[in-house]
Amino acid sequence: MTNQNQACTKSDIAGVSFSIHPMSNAFITIIKNALKEADTSKVHMKTDDVTTTVRGKLVHVFDVTKAIFLHAAKTGEHVAFQATYSLGCPGDSQGDAFMEVDDVPLNADSVKDIKQQVAAKFSLYPLGGGDYMDVIYAQIEAMKEYVSVSPAHYSTRLDGEAFEIFQGLEKVFKATADSGSSHTVMTVSISANSPSHKVEGSDA
Amino acid sequence: MTNQNQACTKSDIAGVSFSIHPMSNAFITIIKNALKEADTSKVHMKTDDVTTTVRGKLVHVFDVTKAIFLHAAKTGEHVAFQATYSLGCPGDSQGDAFMEVDDVPLNADSVKDIKQQVAAKFSLYPLGGGDYMDVIYAQIEAMKEYVSVSPAHYSTRLDGEAFEIFQGLEKVFKATADSGSSHTVMTVSISANSPSHKVEGSDA
Questions:
Q1: To the nearest whole angstrom, how far is the Cα of B168 from the nearest Cα of chain A?
Q2: Which residues form the Thiamin/hydroxymethyl pyrimidine-binding YkoF putative domain (chains A, B) (predicted)?
């Protein structure tokens, strides 16, 4: 078992701790179906009573979380997704990391046609270095290639299709790690089908 | 308006971006009542369709989020709480920060008798410095004074009373900032009344 003591990861293992919250009495069914519909055979996944942890190659960690979110959101219920992605955390175990698999994402075809407008916020945290704000600014700019981007307190707001938002998140997370950040953390909140969604992104 | 571009905070303004998710068809009522029952008159608070932002003195930021969580959880519904606390983010605006108020927490008396067993995970991220892992290890040790602590992937698990967990989170967050971290971020996930709660903390 790994933790912040023995702590997170050798540089090539990616991981995420996430939770998905359908605001519905049917939450158990929605979560279970979403977990079942996603093909998780190229990652290590463990669900407990607080979060679900997925570990493996970066491409599969994003592929699996994107698929689970989209399968839950397509029910039409108000679904919230919260995730902390991590790469390079010092001390992650090498075990159970599924690093021997190929790079072909298993869920790309099954979710690419699910249309789902969402509102999201993300924050990037490159740890251990002094120039981390420059890295953050550059990646916020890069995100604009994918979706609508606007300022928010302590984060950056994204409005658009969920599929494209996940593409953008994967890209900026990978670019941050590739740029030399030895330990990269990214928090993401996504809301789908909220009764309070308004066109807020455009007035910021 | 502030964001990661103009970005987060002058060192004495604390802030949090959080969301609370009741897994129930009555989620709107539960959220609205919890926000109403908490006394938020010593902080700046703004709710949008993704998260709620609270800014002000550290003591009040924790007082208000603890109260909102406890008022939602006491309904007995399965409630999830996700928060990213922040202090010292370079570029936070000085406006609307409610720094002129005194240090007396407004919600302490009204929530201190709400008994609510929860499972939680937290991660501390002191940014911009090279020895951040030592700071993290020290604060995980400090947390043991408050509640049961056990390892988890990319975070540390906490089991106990919600009131005490929030006391501990406030203490370690403040200690991290006081120890010299110029920009401190802490992510927290808390789950109350989950149908899948088990005694997991004891077997880690």
A1: 17
A2: 13-92, 118-196
Q: What top-level class would CATH report for the domain A14-94+115-201? A: alpha beta
Contact across the interface for A191 and B49, Cβ inside 8 Å:
yes
In tens, the pLDDT along B1-57 reads 334 433 443 458 899 999 999 999 999 999 999 999 999 999 999 999 999 999 999
Kindly report, residue by residue over B57-105, the tens digit of the pLDDT. Answer: 999 999 999 999 999 999 999 999 999 999 987 766 666 678 889 999 9
Domain residue ranges in chain A: 14-94+115-201
d(CA A39, CA A21): 20
Round to whole Å and give the CA distance between B132 and A184.
13
Burial B119-132 (b: 16+ CB within 10 A, else e): bbbbbbbbbbbeeb
Contact yes or no for B50/A121 (Cβ under 8 A) = yes
Q: Where are the alpha helices (DSSP H) in B3-73?
A: 27-37, 58-73
Region A144-161: mean pLDDT is: 93
pLDDT one-digit tens code per residue, A167-195: 999 999 999 998 888 889 999 999 999 98
How many Cβ atoms from other residues are within 10 Å of residue A170's Cβ? Answer: 21
Give kind and range of the element (H or E) at residue A32. Answer: helix A27-37
For B102, phi and psi rounded to 5 degrees? -80, 180
This model of the complex carries an ipTM of 0.86
Q: Which amino acid is at B13?
A: I
